[in-house]
Amino acid sequence: MGKDCKFVIPEECRKFGKNNFKVRLERAISFIEKFVEKVAPPKRVDDSDEAWTQSIRKRFFEICPEDCYALLDAPWDKKGEFIADVTWAETRKEKRILLACEIEWGTGWHAKTSWPLVAEHFEKLLPVKASFKVFIFSSDDPPEGAKVIAEGDFSTEFAKEKLEASLKNYGHHLPGEVYIFIDFPRTHIQDSPGKFRSFIWIAEEYGKAKAVVIKEIKEDKLLRPTEFEAQWS
């Protein structure tokens, strides 16, 4: 992997504060674009959650900044985690955690989807102090014309509403914290080109009041269906 595949986090985005708001937003958008370039094909309803999680983790290792290391400091397919499912920490003396990510597909008993599982894992990110916090999940994407999604499942609109409520109710934000949400909706269509939906929140002030605003919403952008098997073999 060349250096051009690595994500870049400038110094002004590594410190908390009200400044450089536009730069933080630009970096968040850039992260989403780089991240989704090479992930697994669209997640079908019957796909293995574990296989998808490993594909996502591998992408984090590939684009980890040059001066950071991805924790755990181990091959991407190892079990275990440090603070979150994936973190990027500086190799230099500051050792700041620049990114923390949680991945939760919400699959419970008998493969039924449960929103409480998703919410529980998102809330792990709230107290973590990192410049960028990424949460990856999977809503349901029912066939065209279907009016009701599967029992226990949830739409991306439902997820966005609940996640925003959690952010607004949390009272210990630091200004400049960036939350990046990426939803890979499960498709019911074989060989679908797939899509992702992403939402970005940035904390403007310390604490709770006026802490979080939605600055960018990107929805229904097609994933690029690259030759997955050749990529990861």
Describe this structure in words.
With 233 residues, the protein is α/β, with parallel strands linked by helices. It has one domain. The protein contains five helices and nine strands, in the order ααβββαββαββββα. A seven-stranded mixed beta sheet has the order 1-2-3-4-6-8-9, with helices on both faces. A hairpin with an 8-residue loop joins strand 8 and strand 9. The longest helix has 15 residues. The radius of gyration is 17 Å and the shape is globular. The C terminus is likely disordered.
- Gross morphology is globular
Give the ordered list of helices and strands.
HHEEEHEEHEEEEH
Rounded to the nearest angstrom, the radius of gyration is 17 Å
Distinct helical segment count:
5
Low-confidence stretches: 73-77, 209-233
**Secondary structural class:** alpha/beta
As for the number of domains, it is: 1
Major sheet size, sense and barrel closure? 7 strands, mixed
Major sheet: order of its strands? 1-2-3-4-6-8-9
Please give the number of β-strands: 9
- The helical percent reads 10-25%
Q: Could you tell me the strand content as a percent range? A: 15-25%
- How far from one another are the termini? 14 Å
Mean pLDDT: 75
Short description:
With 233 residues, the chain is an alpha/beta fold.
Provide the descriptors you would attach to this structure in a database record.
disordered C terminus; globular; 233 residues; 9 strands
